[in-house]
Design brief:
By secondary structure, this protein is α+β, with helices and mostly antiparallel strands. It has 4 helices and 7 strands, in the order βββββββαααα. The protein has 2 domains: 67 residues, no CATH class; 63 residues. The longest helix is centred in the C-terminal third of the chain and has 28 residues.
């Protein structure tokens, strides 16, 4: 006699092990998934299915993410996984980049401003954030534009001089 099919479809899964890094992420198939900060430097078991990444530590599931596909090096981050004092810095990347590149503020001045506001933030950290942002968001855009540009038969460029200092002793052009 035949029985009814189970209510949920069987899903193939592959099990892996990973080490939780200091940035609260694990690496699975060249993608990065966040894990609660309490598990930094611990080995975790990872269940990989076609659509999800589930992370387990000594049986209980501690994190779950939709599986990432496409360009390698993408991050899936749940801000609740980060230490509380790190969460306050998350929204600063946009402001920081605007202050640095639109307003022209040097990092040492931004470091002083943050320190006066009660948030000590080193120039090295701000610099690392900017590098991370450019690698994560600007590099793929640059690569796609470069690819499209190379498909063209003729490339036009504007070679107009642009003075970079207002009262320069010598000619300073880009």
């Amino acid at each position: 006699m035949l029985t009814l099919l189970p209510p949920t479809r069987y899903e193939l899964a592959e099990w892996k092990q990973a080490m939780v890094q200091f940035n609260c992420h694990i690496a699975v198939d060249n993608m990065y998934y966040s894990v609660p900060h309490e598990y930094i430097q611990r080995k975790v078991n990872v269940r990989v299915t076609a659509s999800t990444i589930d992370v387990f530590y000594k049986q209980p599931r501690i994190a779950s993410h939709r599986r990432l596909f496409g360009r390698k090096g993408q991050y899936s981050t749940d801000t609740a996984h980060m230490p509380e004092d790190h969460q306050k810095y998350l929204e600063w990347n946009g402001d920081l980049i605007t202050q640095k590149y639109v307003m022209g503020s040097p990092l040492y001045r931004l470091e002083l401003d943050f320190s006066r506001s009660g948030y000590p933030l080193s120039r090295q950290t701000m610099s690392n954030w900017m590098i991370y942002c450019s690698d994560t968001w600007l590099k793929p855009l640059y690569e796609e534009l470069h690819r499209l540009l190379l498909m063209e038969d003729i490339i036009h460029a504007d070679e107009t001089d642009l003075q970079v200092q207002r009262k320069a002793q010598t000619k300073s052009y880009m």
